[in-house]
């Protein structure tokens, strides 16, 4: 439960700052880890300003006005508490290793998000970037009569970065997809013919958007290309399933991605998929599961158009996670790791519901990689009694995030809350990463 802490005047902090994480003891974050420089934050500063922007997470990405932002020092003392302005913005001067918590109260509870181990110069974004929808701006028509001479198929599917229409049986009218605000003025579009697998496609690289208008695809059908995905260092002896999907990148996103599930029996393992060689490149996603546990790993890579693709799972994978333990009394979530690999960040989603009154709460904590325990921060009494309480029903999910190119916590912490619910694609599209790995333990329902 939240307990009052007095506000304290800002003071200098040591060059090594402990954050509220623990494995066998506190996880100590060096300034270079927390701030991405040799001495701390911007220009090596140990104290300085940080910026916070909070959005509502709706399809319009509306600023969250009046959200509570709590700034705590490395020792947990309150530095400042503010309400976001009309732009969803707040700022404060903090020492290296401080934390920031955003509180959004609902009629039936609250949603909280904390970023640990922040540094002067940080620009922190809170609120999910919606990947599943945009503001409707359509529909456009793709008349059936335009497709004379279509290849025999059991169904067809339309795919763009701003809509996905699942395959439908051939009939008197093919679908008229409604597009949304993710569509640029001109956009890439793909029409796929399906049999037992994708067989042929038509690709339109520059469809002009027309609200309520129509577009006629060129009647030029191309056979799918075989894409060979080869794996090395596959941990076949512990895997129960390996699933591979692959598809072209259209306007930064992947919407058509056929897949195959296998049970590899050797470290070197290959699969073949039918994928069009179009767009800005190929994205390959690999899901790995072991046994009957709920732990899984997702390795997503992007590369140039090619008919062959190689993935070294030994380099790409992160540790496997155990079921997290949510201890209400200490307000901690604890888990174990199994295996190698370096994660840049840890994301813990703790949920709890009161046994009476219908109040439910979610608390996300974003922390530096390597942790095996997080403690929910103690917030000032002015925020309200929002922490877990004895008798609550609880649930917790833990995710590890890893990136290629040596990206560390300092490089990603400001965008984790924006991107993490969208999986790997936002990182690949917006940050220049070419490989993202997510290891997670998916929580069951409240218990």
Features:
447 residues; single chain; five-stranded antiparallel sheet; globular; twelve-stranded mixed sheet
Describe this structure in words.
It is built from five helices and 30 strands. The longest helix is centred in the C-terminal third of the chain and has 6 residues, at 425-430. The protein has helices at 31-35, 313-316, 409-412, 416-419, 425-430, and strands at 17-22, 26-29, 47-54, 68-72, 78-83, 89-95, 98-106, 109-118, 123-126, 155-160, 163-168, 186-194, 198-208, 222-223, 225-232, 241-248, 259-262, 269-275, 282-289, 295-303, 308-312, 320-321, 325-327, 332-334, 337-338, 345-353, 360-368, 373-375, 393-403, 435-441. The protein has 447 residues and is mainly β. The strands form seven sheets. It has a twelve-stranded mixed beta sheet. It is 5% helix and 43% strand. Residues 1-40 have low confidence and may be disordered. It is globular, with a radius of gyration of 24 Å. The chain starts with 16 loop residues before the first strand and ends in a 6-residue tail after the last strand. Strand 19 and strand 20 form a beta hairpin.
